[in-house]
Amino acid sequence: MSATDYVSTWMYVESPQEGGLYPQVGGLTTSQATQNIYWRCVYTFFWSAKAFLKKEGVRLLLFTNVATLPVVGGIDLNRALADFGVELVTLRYTWAPAGTRRPWFNQYFLFDILDYAAGRLDADDTLLVMDNDCLIVGDLDPAFALARRDGALLITVDVGADEDANGLSRRQAMDVYAEVGGTRPASPPDYFGGEFYGLSGALLARLLPLAKEVRIENDALAAAGQAYFSDEAHFFSYLMWRLGLRAPNANAIARRIWTTWKLNNTEAADLKRPVWHLPSEKTYGFADLFARLAAGQSIPTDPVRLNAWLARLMGVGRKSARKFIGHFLRAARRRLRRPA
N or C: which end of the chain has fewer CB within 10 A? Predict the structure, then answer.
């Protein structure tokens, strides 16, 4: 039997009791308007997957905690994603860490996904899990092959040793490493994730038992008010460190690309990456793309032309005056709408 490659994203719908904080979008995460920002990204994510992934046998999965998807901008997501060939996998959120920290509350949903995948994937299968504000803009066959060969795709995020990364710096993480495993790294460990994860079925079979052991120690630290792995990327980075997978091997596949007027790190090399993670485009580029798709506007279908068109729309590859001005004006309008 041939191996299966899975490409997925996720959407966790929070209850009023949970109420996590997500600074990039503002607003109440429990409001439909805020959630629709992410649902639009879910749609464009799978649209891009269908546009660029031509390999037979690639399976598309949406992991979520709801059984029925909403209608957004006139698009019935249940029907639209089914037309794309997306399988809906509904999971409960059971991996939320102990403690009361609310920023990025839902991020440990990743481990419910990996827990599920460990029971589904055969050893030679691969799973890519991406944030829904990613676009697939090229061939992922090299990513599948690399995940099969190395077990995991490790992508570093440019985070300084003393820079806060969702509640914990890399230097502070050294203490947590020592607390949960008894061994302290010689230097601040790399921070892998958290927008893109790629794993083989074989590695998942090793990773999940270890994750369940470490979870107990991490929850104990959180419950005691001590420093702990406050997001899934720190937790995942530690698991990779324990498994001896410490070298970034997939930075050419995906990258966190900022495109705002305040922070813009895009570069020409981004145009060669098959995955763009665009967190600052959730309320701008993705909204524009969704609106064009919902209206049935003409969009290039040739992959080369489509890639170039998306790069202009999202401001990828070079710093764009149009994108700079657009972000500035939208930020100014948001400030004016805020109550005094």
Answer: C
- Tally Cβ neighbours within 10 Å of residue 32: 11
Residue type, 66: V
What count of other Cβ atoms lies within 10 Å of the Cβ of residue 111?
Answer: 23
| Longest distance between any two alpha carbons in the chain, whole Å | 63
Instruction: Name the nearest CA neighbour of 246 among 180, 189, 295, 195.
Output: 189
Q: What digits encode the pLDDT tens for the residues 86-97? A: 999 999 999 998
Q: List, for residues 126-160, the tens digit of each pLDDT value.
A: 999 999 999 999 999 999 999 999 999 999 988 99
pLDDT tens string 233-270:
999 999 999 999 999 999 999 999 999 888 899 999 99
Tokens of 277: 């993670």
pLDDT tens digits, 97-133: 887 666 667 899 999 999 999 999 999 999 999 999 9
Half-sphere exposure of 338 (CA within 13 A, CB side): 9
Tell me which residue has tokens 């893109």. 196
C-alpha distances (whole Å) from 50 to each of 56, 135, 256 are 11, 11, 22
